[in-house]
Protein: Glycogen synthase
Organism: Aurantimonas aggregata
Amino acid sequence: MSLSLLSVASEVFPLIKTGGLADVAGALPLALAEHDIAVRTLMPGYPDVMRQIGSGDALCRFDDLFGGPAVVIGTTLGGLDLLVLDAPHLYDRSGGPYVTAGGFDHPDNWARFAALSKAGAAIAQGAIPGFLPDIVQAHDWQAALTPVYLAVSNRPRPKTVVTVHNLAFQGSYPSSIFASLGLPDTAWSIEGVEYYGNVGYLKGGLHAADLVTTVSPTYADEILTPAGGMGLDGLLRGRGDRLVGIVNGIDTSVWDPQTDPAIACHYSSRALKARTHNKRALEGEFGLRREDGPILAVVSRLTWQKGLDLVAEACDAIVARGARVVVVGSGESAIEGQFLAAHARNPDRVGVRIGYDETLSHRVQAGADAILIPSRFEPCGLTQLYGLRYGCIPFVSKVGGLADTVIDANHAAASAGVATGVIFGPPTGPALMAGVDRALRLYADPKGWRSMQVSAMNADVSWRASARIYADLFRDLTRE
């Protein structure tokens, strides 16, 4: 049975990306196509997006969408069927998708993403002639009002799914905006968008959706607890079996060390010696001392959630043990400063690039020996999947999707030849260093390390299995 699905997302790779949400929104539609599910993706028309799509077809219009006119432009790019919400009064501005050029939230984000959701709901109910989806998938808080608008409508509607990529970001705004959302008074309730006296976008979507998914089975369990539920654990426990955890995959055509145009030398699990050329190139790019010790890498937002304060504090101890550290990312200024100070103390042992560079991240995965992901919580994580694909051994904390996707190199797993990484816990400084010491012992055994790299590179990190789970869920949902 063929199905049509409307995906609503605030960012989509390769048009615009700030994190893993964009990768999923860009790759999952392509994977679902193999299961006879046709996806159209609605996203905001940020300046970078409008420049890339060029001209397209005006499929529907809104005379007044939160303060100005808007048009939905249909186009295709990289196999994606896109619906771009061109609303200059909301999206045509400098800065990023969510923050100003100065790093502060756009003050009207509440309207910018309510507009995305309202447009999504209108399209779901036939605003575009000839398109009436069977399913609407709303990604994170920025799209979570879509099922709310549909739920309060008296018209027939498709089934709705909210996919949570990170429960920490909920879209909570003062009650004063409620009157501007165009929702009925009945929506201001505990069963609507009211959330401790504020308007809760994600909270409303979680309650209104027919199904809630999140991005790994372990994270689905963690968010049912007070420690991991970020205040929403009670609501989520109430959803019962309507909450499902499905681990993310990656686009293995984009992330492929045998064909990647960004890296110095192509290689495979059967030709790992060639990988050394990428390590030498990475040393040169970051001005690192050329030696045989391991390079431990960070490619991440530099935040407390990601546990990167632990790595910053441990940098001197790590290099004292004979390793080198490469850092690519940006985030909290204090953590950025710690890494820059570590580089100043060890200029040929610690390399730092503040800012995000997609192409550079490929070169880091191809050249570093291990990728450090010591997150305090991690819904799924994609960085460790890239590491597996490139033989860059994941060094991860035992949380969320990290625990679901990496097999620890304990004695049993290493002896059986199935280990793919190093897992440590809890995410504290002493546990981190104990894990680093264990990783360095493993690295000192070249044959064992190479065996772990081969197992990692042979792991299935594609969307194949997860897309099938999504497809089966969607079909079951439409049969209800």
Observations:
- The chain has two domains: 3-249+464-479, 272-458.
